[in-house]
Task: inverse folding
């Protein structure tokens, strides 16, 4: 039997139509490949193919924007897993949490990762904002990207807040009640706020009822928060992140030049 | 003071952050004539991102293996826990409820915070300190941010998380939470303290105090900026205070002044409450501040 020729086999594979249709360039460390590696890859081409040296330094960015994004992705992945086992109704929600924790393979781990990543994301986004402030990176021409960032900050908090209700335990409903009760005090629009009589708002028809989906926290609130948490806010946040990243790409990283 | 290389060429003069002899570095000629070294994203940036991602995921996994997410008793709308705390990231606002009514602490103040944050790039016209760390060149901006973010926001979250117990009373960590602790409410309104007993007089008095605060505050800010000396080497405005005011313009000055004074007002209200047990400054049948 003839000796098996590795080189020849490898050449046949990499020259085949299938291989070439997937991989457009080789892996040797050449300047051309380094550029193609980024520009030819849909995920990596979020980056420019070359970056200023200081922008790579961790001391400059603290990696915090990237970590925020990474933690967001973690919550997306673990969140999908949780969604398979969770029903957003008052009868089942709490029981499903228990079921998830005790019966589902890796259920507890997924739940923990989802929750801690969400908390981590809130911390990371604040640190990111702090870094951007300290490097003065909101100054022209990046003013508007700072505004987009503030919107992302608010969305991050809203994502976290709407998720807080879903376990449907004492911690969650009371924390969300305390938070949402503020809306009751909205001037003009809340039934406990100043000038509420002007528009004639009442407990079942005011700013808080809009958040709760009714006069009090209840099953309707759970469904509402579930949809906001799993569909609406992630979608909006992704859109704003796309704008955020696009503008960083256009304007380049801020730097001392 | 600058950490990220001072000016054109500064970055190029440094040794590469990450070692490796085979790196291919292509200097890019800038229109200005300076040379800023650029690195290939692959492998240099992607490598750091990759390693950082692995690190974050490992930390998160270990954290999640060691510490379970909380799950308390099933929800019961008839049993209000004492204290009921908002999620930790909103505790700064909940803490504000000690000093202000909910319409201000929970609605107006957060709006000021969000709008104020969004306006920062348009209010700050100092061209220096764009893209590098510096304190000297933008001390006012950094101190303002520090007071708002670190002192007001972060420290109030810490207070709300660790120092507040039943009845939102102050408990040291480790101290037993006594749900029956009663703190004497001896607060009085400022107009009452000055002997005013009817609404109209109190309201006029309160408005005058708040109006006076803003007039004095604006004037103070104006003269403080005006008195910035000319020729400060760290400043982008060699003409000093008058030049700053001219370039800044009345709109920016007005908005910045309002936001800064509103923020300082939080401190003043806290001080009045703690030192003199003042509840409200402005008392009307509709709103109280
Ligand atoms: C979900 C939230 C956010 C994500 C995922 C995100 C992501 C990122 C990433 C990956 C970068 C690249 C540089 C870096 O890593 O530091 C960046 C830059 C930037 N971010 Fe964010 N960000 C978020 C929120 C914010 C917030 C809250 C602000 C400000 C209020 C902000 C303002 C900016 C600005 C101005 C830049 C450009 C910085 C420069 O050129 O030096 N972002 N962001």
Result:
């Amino acid at each position: 039997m003839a000796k098996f020729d590795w080189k020849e086999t490898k050449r046949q594979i990499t020259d085949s139509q299938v291989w070439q249709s997937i991989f457009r360039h080789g892996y040797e460390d050449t300047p051309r490949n380094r550029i193609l590696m980024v520009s030819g890859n849909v995920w990596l081409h979020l980056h420019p193919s070359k970056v200023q040296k200081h922008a790579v330094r961790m001391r400059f960015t603290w990696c915090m924007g990237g970590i925020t994004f990474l933690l967001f992705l973690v919550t997306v992945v673990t969140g999908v897993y949780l969604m398979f086992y969770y029903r957003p109704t008052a009868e089942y929600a709490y029981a499903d949490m228990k079921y998830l924790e005790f019966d589902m393979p890796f259920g507890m781990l997924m739940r923990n990762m989802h929750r801690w990543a969400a908390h981590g994301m809130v911390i990371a986004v604040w640190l990111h904002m702090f870094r951007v402030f300290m490097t003065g990176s909101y100054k022209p021409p990046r003013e508007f990207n700072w505004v987009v960032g503030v919107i992302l900050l608010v969305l991050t908090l809203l994502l976290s807040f709407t998720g807080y209700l879903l376990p449907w335990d004492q911690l969650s409903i009371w924390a969300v009640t305390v938070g949402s009760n503020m809306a009751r005090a909205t001037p003009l629009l809340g039934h406990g706020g100043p000038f509420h009589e002007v528009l004639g708002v009442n407990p079942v028809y005011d700013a808080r009822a809009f958040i709760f989906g009714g006069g009090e926290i209840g099953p309707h609130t759970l469904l509402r928060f579930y949809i906001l948490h799993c569909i609406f806010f992630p979608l909006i946040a992704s859109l704003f992140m796309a704008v955020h990243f696009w503008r960083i790409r256009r304007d380049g990283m801020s730097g001392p030049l | 003071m600058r950490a990220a290389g001072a000016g054109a060429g500064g970055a190029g003069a440094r040794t590469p952050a990450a070692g490796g002899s085979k790196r291919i570095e292509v200097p890019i000629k800038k229109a200005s004539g300076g040379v800023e070294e650029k690195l290939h994203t692959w492998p240099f940036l992607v490598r750091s991102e990759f390693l950082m991602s692995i690190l974050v995921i490992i930390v998160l996994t270990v954290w999640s293996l060691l510490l379970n997410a909380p799950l308390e008793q099933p929800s019961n709308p008839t049993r209000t826990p004492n204290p009921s705390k908002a999620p930790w990231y909103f505790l700064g606002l909940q803490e504000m409820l000690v000093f202000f009514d909910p319409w201000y602490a929970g609605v107006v103040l957060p709006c000021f915070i969000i709008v104020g944050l969004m306006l920062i790039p348009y209010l700050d016209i100092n061209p220096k300190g764009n893209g590098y760390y510096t304190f000297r060149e933008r001390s006012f901006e950094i101190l303002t941010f520090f007071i708002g973010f670190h002192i007001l926001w972060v420290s109030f979250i810490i207070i709300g998380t660790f120092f507040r117990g039943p009845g939102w009373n102050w408990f040291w960590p480790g101290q037993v939470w006594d749900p029956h602790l009663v703190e004497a409410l001896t607060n009085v309104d400022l107009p009452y303290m000055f002997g005013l007993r009817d609404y109209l007089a109190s309201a006029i008095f309160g408005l005058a105090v708040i109006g006076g605060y803003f007039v004095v505050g604006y004037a103070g800010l104006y003269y403080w900026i005006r008195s910035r000396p000319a020729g400060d080497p760290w400043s982008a405005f060699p003409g000093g205070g008058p030049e700053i005011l001219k370039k800044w313009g009345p709109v920016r000055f007005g908005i910045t002044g309002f936001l800064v004074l509103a923020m300082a007002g939080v401190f003043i209200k806290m001080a009045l409450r703690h030192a003199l047990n003042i509840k409200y400054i402005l008392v009307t049948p509709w709103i109280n501040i």
